[in-house]
Design brief:
Length: 465
């Protein structure tokens, strides 16, 4: 199929950017995992709990962080990179202004729902706050009713008006909160609010993801009194004031899993550095079940309390001899298999020996990547929250489009093992959560290239055999 550069010039720039992968190269060498996107976003929101300059180390340089920086800057929080991965957030309450840029703030919250969790800390500090109601996204409806119910339980008046969630309170009081689902965002949000509420708050059925423990460690170092983070029951004793601190963000366990799976599925031998092994146990054990060799080089966390002590760093040595075996996966809240890793694991299962069944219990629309994998020859059948994948002997390169962040990563990984060339577009999704994705894969021997708009317009016609 011929694609002439001038045919593409009429499309939006996003359509033009593409990754071209030629399959067949095994990955060898090492990769360093960046800081956790999902932790860094929660920490940035929680930095609003303290007056002054909070310094976050090991912050990944990715799209979602840039959106959060833009959001906080528009609200009057000066943010600056004082090192390649060191971000300073300066909170000066006298400068906080939630109303002047409401139109842009709406657009930013719609882009990145995690920014919604600034509402509680602002409410605790100012007595009133408003944030645009986040929309659904590519992987599901993703409402915020648990967040709102929790703030109301702490005594806030919270209502939706003109697309904004408006919250007011004389004084937040501790409450006994039950989450209908162990929501990561709601747990982060309510924890970051309860620390400044008067009295005791208990969050039942709390999310137990490692990012919650990282947030608890951050808040505790600011002076908060928290027990039970990382378990299903978190107790908080509110305090009057918190102080800004310096904190290192934990490694991104989803990024780590992506490279571990990429090493295994290409039959390579990779060292995934700067990980917390304990955060990856479900993925390590599933990879071993599928026939990969995964060795942990360094300490595992079981030795320390995740919410009190900075977890020790390790590395994963991952390799695979022969073809992966089919396995069944149930994506569930931590300590279950992480939902964000299921799409990239599916890319490996697409060519595994046998039939795999993936059950998704967190989101209602996370299988959109399957139709793109089918264009590469995968044999997948999706019904509701379940996908059945019959492993095929090989995938073939095709033009595919990233449906969301982790689905996009899955398509790149599928391209690594497909016969011929795969072209992936809609890269803005991948850029949200993977720092230097192409470069890190290139460094391990992948035959991969990224074309930005200018490069494509300047390039001769691309041809796909
Ligand atoms: C966080 O999203 C992560 N994002 C997601 O990672 C991750 O998939 C998810 O947790 C689950 O682990 C960030 O941390 C920025 P939830 P979050 O609240 O907090 C429903 C990635 O790829 N729900 O645990 O939004 C919701 O609709 C991203 O890095 C309500 O119904 O997830 C969803 O179905 C994708 N009402 C389920 O709960 C609420 O008030 C889990 O959502 C809140 C959530």
């Amino acid at each position: 199929m011929e694609i002439n550069a001038d045919e593409t010039s009429s499309r939006g720039d996003q359509d033009l950017e593409k990754i071209l992968v030629t399959g067949g190269q095994r990955l060898d060498g090492e990769v360093r995992v960046s800081g956790s996107k999902n932790s860094a976003l929660a920490l940035m929101a929680a930095s609003l709990c303290a007056e002054g300059v909070t310094t976050l180390e090991n912050v990944p340089n990715i799209g979602d962080i840039h959106v959060m920086i833009e959001m906080m800057s528009k609200m009057g929080c000066a943010t600056r990179w004082s090192g390649e991965h060191r971000l300073e957030v300066e909170v000066d309450t006298s400068n906080l202004d939630l109303k002047s840029h409401s139109a842009e703030l709406v657009e930013l919250v719609q882009k990145m729902r995690a920014s919604f969790t600034i509402l509680g800390p602002l409410l605790a500090r100012l007595g009133e706050a408003q944030v645009a109601l986040p929309g659904g996204c590519a992987i599901g409806t993703r409402s915020v009713d648990f967040h709102i119910k929790g703030l109301q339980a702490m005594g806030a008046e919270v209502y939706v008006e003109h697309g904004f969630v408006i919250a007011k309170t004389e004084k937040l009081k501790g409450a006994h909160i039950f989450l209908d689902f162990p929501s990561v965002g709601a747990t982060n949000h309510l924890l970051s609010t309860a620390v400044l509420a008067e009295g005791k708050t208990i969050i039942e059925n709390a999310a137990q993801e490692p990012e919650i423990s990282d947030l608890a460690r951050f808040l505790s170092s600011m002076g908060a009194k928290i027990k039970g983070a990382g378990t299903h029951r978190i107790e908080v004793e509110g305090v009057k004031r918190l102080k800004p601190v310096r904190h290192a963000v934990i490694p991104d366990r989803i990024e780590a899993a992506t490279y571990a799976i990429a090493g295994a599925m290409t039959g390579g031998n990779v060292l995934v550095k700067n990980v917390v092994a304990d955060h990856l146990l479900p993925v390590i054990l599933k990879l071993r079940e599928s026939g990969a060799r995964v060795e942990v080089e360094g300490p595992t966390l079981r030795l320390v309390d995740n919410a009190r002590t900075t977890p020790p760093l390790s590395a994963l040595r991952v390799s695979m001899e022969g073809r992966a075996r089919a396995v069944n996966l149930t994506a569930a809240p931590h300590p279950g298999f992480p939902t964000d890793t299921h799409p990239v694991f599916a890319a490996m299962l697409a060519v595994a020996e046998g039939t795999s069944v993936i059950t998704e219990t967190v989101y209602d629309r996370r299988f959109r990547y399957c139709s793109e994998l089918q264009r590469m020859g995968a044999n997948t059948r999706v019904s509701g929250q379940t996908a059945v994948i019959d492993g095929v002997d090989r995938l073939t390169g095709a033009q595919v489009s990233a449906p969301d962040l982790r689905g996009g990563a899955a398509l790149v990984l599928a391209g690594l093992i497909a016969q011929g060339e795969t072209e992936i577009t809609q890269l803005q999704y991948i850029d949200r959560g993977y720092e230097a994705f192409v470069q890190k894969l290139l460094n391990m021997g992948a035959n991969i290239e990224r074309f930005d708009t200018a490069a494509i317009l300047a390039r001769p016609a691309l041809s796909f055999a």
